[in-house]
Amino acid sequence: ILYDTINCHNSIEAFYYGFLSGLLRGAGLYVKNDRENGRGRTDIVIEDGKHGRAIIFELKKADDYAHLDTMADAALAQIDERKYAAGLPPRIKTVLAYGVAFCKKDCVVKRGLPPVQMQKRQ
């Protein structure tokens, strides 16, 4: 989908943010954008209160393809350092974290389970 929709000369983080939010919303998911959680503002959160789970997405733009992995790791680290999961409602017991790094028409997605936050959710 990236190859069909993005112009690599206009690849800014805000575009990727809208792109991913639109994909998730189009899939029928309830998406919360740019909300305060923990010690900062999460990029994208999907909550499933009925089943007590949530997914946190943090997005980063890499300046070149060689930094995609590093930026995805930095996104996961930000989720943990800013304790985004701690700001979720008490009914949320399971939290998945995804660091997503974009560079022009490519991306890297890494999944993490921040151990400090997960302990607080129990």
Topology:
Layout: H1 2-5, H2 13-26, E1 31-37, E2 40-48, E3 53-61, H3 68-81, E4 94-103, E5 106-112, H4 115-121
Parallel strand pairs: 3-4
Antiparallel strand pairs: 1-2, 2-3, 4-5
Distance between the termini: 37 Å
What are the secondary-structure elements, in order, as H or E? HHEEEHEEH
Question: What's the assembly state of these chains?
Answer: single chain
Task: Report the principal-axis shape.
Answer: globular
Whole-angstrom Rg: 14 Å
- Outline the biggest β-sheet: 5 strands, mixed
**In percent, how much strand structure appears in the residues?**
25-35%
- Spatial order of the strands in the main sheet? 1-2-3-4-5
Query: Could you tell me the mean pLDDT?
Result: 83
Helix content: 25-40%
> In terms of structural class, how would the helical and strand content be classed?
alpha+beta
What would you say this structure looks like, in words?
The protein has 122 residues and is an alpha+beta fold. Helices cover 32% and strands 34% of the residues. The protein starts with a helix and ends with a helix.
Question: Short description, anyone?
Answer:
With 122 residues, the chain is of the alpha+beta class. It has helices at 2-5, 13-26, 68-81, 115-121; strands spanning 31-37, 40-48, 53-61, 94-103, 106-112.
